[in-house]
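Figure caption, in words: inputs first, then the predicted bound structure.
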Amino acid sequence: MCGIVGYVGHSNATGIIIEGLKKLEYRGYDSSGIALCTKEKELIVRKKKGRIANLEELIGDENLYGNLGIGHTRWATHGAPSDVNAHPHTDASGRIAVVHNGIIENYQILREELENEHGIQFKSESDTEVIAQLIGLYYDGDLEEAVFKATERMRGAYGIGVICVNEPDRMVAVRKDSPLIVGLGKGCNFIASDIPALLKHVRQIYLIENNEMVVLNANEVKIYNGDRQPVSREVFNVNWEDEAAEKGGYDHFMLKEIHEQPQVIKDTLAGRIDENGEIAIDSIHMSKEEIESFNRIYIVACGTAYHAGLVGKFAIEKLAGVGVEVDVASEFRYRDPFIDEKTLFIAISQSGETLDTLAALREAKAKGARIMSIVNVVGSSVARESDDVLYTWAGPEIAVASTKAYTTQLICMYLLGLYMGRKKGVIADDVYRRYVDELEAAPDRIREILKGEKHIETLARKLYRRNNVFFIGRGYDAAVSYEASLKLKEISYINSFATAAGELKHGTIALIEQDTLVIAIATQQRLFEKMLSNIQEVKTRGAYVLGIAKADSTEMDQQAEDVIYIPQCMDEVSPLLSIVPLQILAYYIAKLRGCDIDKPKNLAKSVTVE
Ligand code: M6R
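Bound structure (5-amino-5-deoxy-1-O-phosphono-D-mannitol present):
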């Protein structure tokens, strides 16, 4: 979590850094701060609890000026959100300032050593202050050297940016298990945790690898590996438009991203189905023999990406004829799963930086598994550490609540199932064609659903005061229930719970009482009657039922108080459609409850801590 930005050049760094931080606020937003080096070798630090707007208010009319600066937006781990725990942190002499994204695992030992053996007095509870104090301790006129010595002592994850008043023309940055990029400008250079922070200024970037150190001035960027040997790096050209990271007239990024789904699904399919309707995925290099040799597939991910994996399990098992297990990444790595060279490990991650997912991937890799990933952020850690990558072309997803990343992850899951099944020769031609047609039809069908937004908003007005909501479904619909429930709870703070509809009677039904809202997803033909029975079970206990059903399911009208219909589609691809009205419903309910939709409390977009 946390976002860092740094600038070195000939302009005033203040505005550039604050604008960049605003683009990274999705990474954490409980405090923010900025440090500038002036030509007079003065270090200016301003930091404030709360949103970046609070920092701007603090700075007010102050004319802060420096051509070198670093900034930070925080998601608290060590030390509560407060002015004093906000970054940048400085060393005891006040010459050095540090911003940090990650966690220093041995900070307590280092802190005790600095306090007891060197008499250093700490100002904050943050683990990051240890970095600043260590660099200060080792500083002897060469910032690069001091940062190197400090990192040799640090354990954990860090992307750091460091400046020193004695060297007002250069910045040092290091990456270990936390994202870091360098933006290459004309007469200026930048560092950042993520691309949107720099889009206004640069299109050319370096993706910094693990354990690398970067030394930047206005005209030059030098990258060193962990042995301090210079390394050369290819320039990565970013082809996003700046507007891709803007709201484009929508009230919230979440709504904009919901509306982008038809287009990004199209983009994710583009180039992967050739003119003959054959799946052609350039980025996957698996032979028929390799695919046949897999005796175990794990899909591992967190949150929404995990929910995409639940749908992926159904799709791959059906299409490729091989058993699939889906695991929450934080559990997978500690349960000592059986893995060998016949295992295919599939990581799903929007950011590609989720630490739990990355750690599970490394565990699987060390045990010999083949690693494939489905990732949105190009060049992210998960992507780089995988043998094969299938990118979701969703573009930047800014809202903390994932929407377009989820539906494009589903597309990738179907593509992968078709790819593997086709190579193995286990899918009949007509079944294969039908799937391809259905995937290609999804964008238009989602457009149809989006046309019903007003109806869903009206339903939200009816339902937004509820305190408990239950989502039920069977098969693919159960998988969608989990995602729909997460969407609602994370942005509206309503206590919502999802369960396979058949499980209700084994406990959860005890919670159903007069007027309890139950959202029943019932798009699977072969399970429809069973769902109607489950709906009856909750209605008998007083539930108010909102049904999600396909356009021809007229029985739903008689069973449920309200219904949202989705267009006709093949049962197996219905998750692509059924989630969309529930994303919209969650959005409007949260809006009516006055919630901070794009930045829900206690959350952050990219979770780079365990
Ligand atoms: O970047 P990732 O896809 O790896 O993130 C995983 C989860 O943190 C993420 O999906 C989270 O659950 C969503 N923000 C929920 O909307």
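The two ends are 10 Å apart (CA to CA).
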